[in-house]
Amino acid sequence: MQKKRSAVWRHFAEEGENKVSCRKCHKRLTKHGNTSMMLRHLRGKHPELLPCMLDGSSAEVPSVPQVEEESWPPEEQQQEEMEGLPSHDNSVKKKRSTVWRHFAEDGRDKVWCRLCNERLAKHGNTSSMLRHLRGKHPDLKLGDLQGDQTRKLNRLHLRSSNSETRFLSICERLLRHNQLTDCTLVADGHLVPVHRLVLATCSESFEEMFKSITQPNPVVVLRDVSLTELQGLISYMYKGETLVKSHNLPGLLRAATQLKIKGK
To answer: In Å, how far are 28, 33, 79, 264 from 3, measured between CA atoms?
Structure first.
């Protein structure tokens, strides 16, 4: 390949006597004695590579715009679309890191870079390949190189097993001491301070109501809801449970339905 003068050969590798493969997408093309077909492939599939080629010293590269005037045999087009990936790519697919997009195995203990053909020794991981890409091909995004597996290792999933219980416990304690309350409910003429966040979390009716209220510490008068029923509902919303006498149960359920209290 070093005998080729065209910069297009940076992006292709020979396979046998009449085939070449694109280092970028692994498509196999048929050779026809010149690089016009390979140039056409790069222009159509990988236009981002052309600026790099124009910086080279090849005499063939400036003629890229003339490729549009050349004819490309239909059977050649069909062959490019129908050709499968090279057989060695089956092993690449098994690799978890996306760094293998830019390398191919060369025997049992070597790999070669598809971008510059440099060969590296394998060491059971992708560290040397990542160092090579960072040093020789810094235009590649680091996130694309490290792959999903490495990104997962860089993140820790911290999860609390009782966050909801702890939240309600704190809110219930604040309610007992009348701390941080920001709303007052009125039932049977009695004022009951509460927390809007807790009510909005447990009741669709309160949620919609508080979305439209802009003033701080609003006072909400609950009609057709007795103080006993309200106290039972507040206990249920803050603690997740409440004690109710049997003869008060129908009124409590009616008030819960009216205020759209969510069940646990």
So the answer is: 21, 14, 27, 75
